[in-house]
Amino acid sequence: MRVRVKIRRFNPEQDRRPYWATYTVDAEPTDRVLDLLVQIKSYQDGTLTFRRSCAHGVCGSDAVVINGRNRLACKELVQDVGRSIQIEALRGLPVIKDLVVDMEPFFRQYRSILPFLINDEPAPYDERLQSPEARARYDDTTKCILCAACTTSCPSYWASSDYVGPAAIVQAHRFIFDDRDRGAQARLAILAEGTGVWRCHTIYNCTEACPRGIQVTQAIGEVKKAITTGEIR
Amino acid sequence: MSKIARVSLPNAVAYRGGQPMIAWLLHRISAIGIVVFVSMHIWAAFFLYAVAGTTGGVAEALTEFYEALPMQVFVLFCILYHAINGLRIVILDMWPSLYRYNREAMWVQWAIFLPLFLLPAALMILGGS
Ligand code: FES
Fold first, then answer.
1. Rounded-to-integer distance, Cα B74 and Cα A229, Å
2. Is A159 in the pocket of ligand 1 (CB under 6 A)?
3. Residue A183 sits in which domain range?
4. How much distance in Å is there from the Cα of A135 to the middle of ligand 1?
5. Are residues A53 and A73 in the same domain?
6. Is pLDDT of B123 > 80?
7. How many Å lie between the alpha carbon of B1 and the closest alpha carbon of chain A?
8. Can you count the helices (H) and strands (E) in chain B?
9. Residues A96 and A118 placed together within one structural domain of the fold
10. Which of A13, A77, B19, B78 is the most buried (most CB within 10 A)?
11. B3 pLDDT exceeds 70?
């Protein structure tokens, strides 16, 4: 089938403002949107720039806006998006070129919530044991691949990039509810600030955008509750 | 390389977030509606009593505007929508495990909102004519 691909392109060294370029590609219904991008770059226009690495939904490199929604290009099939496909760079992060955005603000927010195990108690000889139930408590938020699809789908983040954003809160949730970790209070204090969880207005764009199916809004809600009640359950 | 990545309003609204995003937009719009209505009330009273005699015409015009049928129906919509949508979010916030049932919560919300809004609105419109 023939597919019309419209891509929002921008080269800051040449263009004053972004513009739409249209390409026509032959594709199978089971092709992924990433395959179309690779085909365009290989055979039609070598200047097209995008990020991808694993091509299998694991690394989180190729989150883009496909037909108005944040998606991983490598997970989205042509048959699910139709014959007319519109692709843009993620909203809310500076565009470096075409579909490539500067992820540094996003990773800075990720680092701000202390995304590592904090526990000064002497470690046992072999490992810090954990029950399956305790592990299950934060299982959902361990699935995050830091693709930024949730954070850049959030209107609160578009309004102010000071907001730590859903992805950073998901990563904080992963450690706050881990019973081997002792840094929960420090993280809750960071997220209780003006740039933290209270910027979330329960819009659910993040949950809808997450390519790993994480219940992002719920994780934020659980952190909000932990802050207000002081209890981590 | 541009450092600021502001998202323009048309670009933001073009994002296809789905029902909960529309609910959030309506929540904001209804809030603005309520603020506008209440401030018109206060201004009308102010003009009527504080500067009596000189500006009665302004007070009358304002009162006429917010007492007109379309404005009354709009205010009814704003208050009911804002209250019921707000309740949904309060309930989700109190019991975060319900967050994953938001789709169902939104159906319940419409089931409560529509009769509560449509019946009085119909009575207002029919009774007014
Ligand atoms: S290329 Fe790795 S997630 Fe898509």
1. 38
2. no
3. 104-229
4. 27
5. yes
6. yes
7. 6
8. 5, 0
9. no
10. B78
11. no
As a whole number, mean pLDDT of residues B74-80 equals 96
- The torsion angle over the Cα atoms of residues A185, A188, A194 and A197, rounded to 10 degrees, is -170
Same domain, A60 and A159: no
Closest-approach residue (CA) in chain A for B14: A68
Given a cut of 80, whether residue A218 has pLDDT beyond it is yes
For residue A117, how far is its CA from the centre of ligand 1 (angstroms)?
26
Q: Do A216 and A149 belong to one domain?
A: yes
CB A98 within 8 A of CB A50: yes
Give the domain-ending residue among A101, A136, A158: A101
Chain B CA closest to residue A96:
B1
What is the pLDDT at residue B43? 84
Cα–Cα distance, A167 to A209 (Å, whole number): 11
CATH code at A199?
Answer: 1.10.1060.10
Average pLDDT over residues B6-31: 93
Query: Which residues of chain A have a CB within 8 Å of the CB of B89?
Result: 202
pLDDT band at B94 (very low <50, low <70, confident <90, very high): very high
Residues A129 and A174 in one domain: yes
What are the start-end ranges of the E strands in A31-75?
63-66, 69-72
For residue A69, the chain B residue with the least C-alpha distance is: B16
Q: What is the largest CA-CA distance in chain A?
A: 62
Give tens-digit pLDDT for B97-106: 999 999 999 9
Q: What percent of chain B has pLDDT over 90?
A: 63
Q: What is the mean pLDDT of residues A71-89?
A: 97
User: Is the CB of A74 within 6 Å of ligand 1?
Assistant: yes
Domains along the sequence of chain B with CATH: 19-127 (1.20.1300.10)
Q: How far is the CA of A209 from the centre of ligand 1 (A)?
A: 15
What is the tally of structural domains in chain A?
2
